[in-house]
User: Fold this.
Amino acid sequence: MSSWLDYTINGLIVGNVYALVAVGLALIFGVSRLINFAQGSIYLVGAYIGWVAVVQLHTPLPLTIIVVAVAAALVGLIIERFGLRPLQNSVRIAPLLATIGISFVLDQLVMLTFSPNPRALPSQLPDVRFQVGGGTIGPLDLLIAGVGLTSALLLFVFLRYSKLGWAVRATAQDRDAAMQMGVDVNRVNQAVFGIAAALGGVSGMLVGMYYNQIDTAMSLQATLKGVVAEVVGGAGNVPGAIIGSLLLGLVESYGVAVFGTSYRNLFAFLLLVVVLVLRPNGLFASARQAPPEPLTGTFIAPSRPVRIPRWALLVATGIFAVLPLFPVSFYVLQTLINAWLLGMLALSLTLVAGTIGQVSLGHAALLAIGAYTSALLSLNLSVPVGLAIIGGGLMSAALGTALISPSFRLRGHYVSIATLAIGEIVSLVILNWESVTRGPIGISGIPPLALFGYELVSPISIYWFSFIVMVVLALLQGRLLGSHLGRSFRAIRDDDVAARAYGLSLNRYKSLAFIFGGFAAGVSGGIAAHLYSYINHETFNTQQSILALTVVILGGLGNVVGAILGAVALVGLPEVFRVAAEYRILIYGIVLLLLVRFRPQGLLGTM
Amino acid sequence: MTTSAPEPLLALSDVNTFYGQAQVHFDLSINVGRGHIVCLLGGNASGKSTTMKIILGLVKPRSGEVTFDGTSLLGLSTPQIVRRGIASVPEARRLFADMSVRENILMGAFVRNDRTEVAQDLDKMLALFPKLGQRLSQRAGSLSGGEQQMVAMARALMSRPRMIVMDEPTMGLSPLYVDRVLELIRTINQEGVSVFMVEQNASLALEIAHEAYVLQTGKIVLSGSARALKDDPRIRDAYLGGSEAA
Ligand SMILES: Nc1ncnc2c1ncn2[C@@H]1O[C@H](COP(=O)(O)OP(=O)(O)OP(=O)(O)O)[C@@H](O)[C@H]1O
Ligand SMILES: [Mg+2]
Assistant:
């Protein structure tokens, strides 16, 4: 039985680790107003470099720390130079998307190099524990605390007394003014990326030693925790990030003490959402001050959409409709069914992210809500599958909109963070609400697709069913975009201040967009549940949210035909080229990076 | 062809500037002679601040040329331009609000590496702006508008510039501070620093300027020596937006 003091010590130690990640995020956000979603990947890389150093090169601990810091810093410099600097004059969403793409690429490279299996990372420290009051503390705890304090001190000295440190602070406060003093902001960017990466890498190594285990799932978790800590402390605020991290560590540790381990992350994300809603600038800023985001526009790349003649669309639809009548393999149908399901999700996301400009990073949660609702309706209440799927869509629309609505006043990056957090919360509630969702066991034996009492078991019937549903949703969305409502959506995206001045109620329109989008995604999830016959809390994960976003950007934000084309391309092309499964995520990451760099408006253009 | 006039320190010639589709400057040509105070007058949204940004390289023109001391500035980044000897007092001062007054002033010397002389120059600034002495460790954001203007000017001088560009240095100041600022600009100029300033208040600016240009929706509609312009009735017309001002 651990004592409260143990939980406090554990909370502070974990908080220290978070702080090393969050401080880097804060530095980068301060200087370039960018949430670096690749920060967790650098942490992952740090952990594996530490493993190579310790296990293969047998370096002593001080040298290990230096090796990890230097190697991680190099990775950070490369990311800044080749991933982000070319995007300096791009739309504001571009660097954010690029860091997401970079994180996919780095994570997959680590996974391909080291295999996804967990590895042990011994700390090289004696395994003793000292009694302190009613708790115990070990050498590794002291090391982590020492590294945390030393880093904070070094950072303080750097920012306060070095010329480059001054440049960092000046750039964070007023980029243009700093340039007018002769500050080279590229060098400042380089410096903060290098520092952030060094700290992040060391943090990953320390965590690996703390749990004596490293695996590739660490990356996303680290990014999420770092973002939580940073936002709680106030984006861009370095001391705030440290305090936010310690607070997060304590909240988690006490939460685990009271409710159990599986609640750890739930507390983290609830803390984030509460802070975002009540004090979007963090706990230490005045509540009134608006988050540092541009007031309007330029978050989405403007472009002229490619016009596709109606007959071409009709012909394409016709071809795909009659395709199963020809001798195509089961494999092709299976692939296209996946494309149609992803297409529905993309329709939903392109409306929310593209048309009304709320770039959601948690869209898979809508799939999950639809899937669980439909599965449980048909299993527990014997609702016919067709109706259950519609129920899933409605539940997704209602619950998804209700969950996001407190964050409607947020803008830009903050919307993305909020949706990411809500996505995680949905998944964690599913994990923990065992009486309804069956928790970690998941739901098995979900009845197959059926319509009016007839089971759809043949691939052809499933193909037609999903295709027709997608086409109907696409037609509805096309009508919506051409209507007055669609124009209001775009007006809000392009300039929400002006839109409000014209008397548009932002909350009502954002709700409408999420209701429609939630329905389409929920239906997709519902169909998937009956198709897979087994789902659990990880079936619909962040990776799918990001895949959907890549699809939507590939097609062109807001573009209905583009969303479907993007889905077919991203699901179909790897099949055509028989790309091994473990390389797919890597390819998605690279596609995202290339798009952001060379064709931010996507294949068919934004609408 | 030879010209008898000495080569200007700063020359904008036939500059056309766009923000997206919207054109802000139409064949803009401005000269700032060595050791002169040149003033750019114009109403709201006429493109004055954009002219400053062109000089500083924060915005690049679509066509035209900008030269400083005979060499083009167009291929240079803002920090490079600053290193050539152009300092700025931006619109609304743009101090580093969370840094101390001392740090703000020293930021002006960012391009310099001669620490001891920088320290001497800081003392000089405190002599020139005596009020700042007691405020050195205060957050710059907590100063009054007039005090902030003093800090912005001290900050600009710290780079030992050959030219200072100022965007509406008297905006929002009490009459007492306005006089003080104008006097300081004259002092700075007498020490050999050329000044290019943007102003809305023509009568004030013409008191200290040698030459002036009047900008109206991106076109120079009037220019000449300040003395000549002071009594020109067209100055008033230009401000009222008279269509035949030129
Ligand atoms: N970054 C920008 N993007 C698009 N348009 C801009 C931008 N900055 C300025 N403009 C527009 O260019 C025009 C000229 O602006 P500028 O700031 O140069 O005017 P100004 O003469 O300094 O005005 P003021 O007296 O109000 O300071 C204005 O119509 C303004 O709206
Ligand atoms: Mg202006």
Notes: Chain A has two domains: 4-129+139-278, 331-540. The first strand of chain A starts at residue 130 and ends at 132. The two ends of chain A are 59 Å apart (CA to CA). Residues B 48-49, 91, 167 surround magnesium ion (ligand 2) (CB under 6 Å).
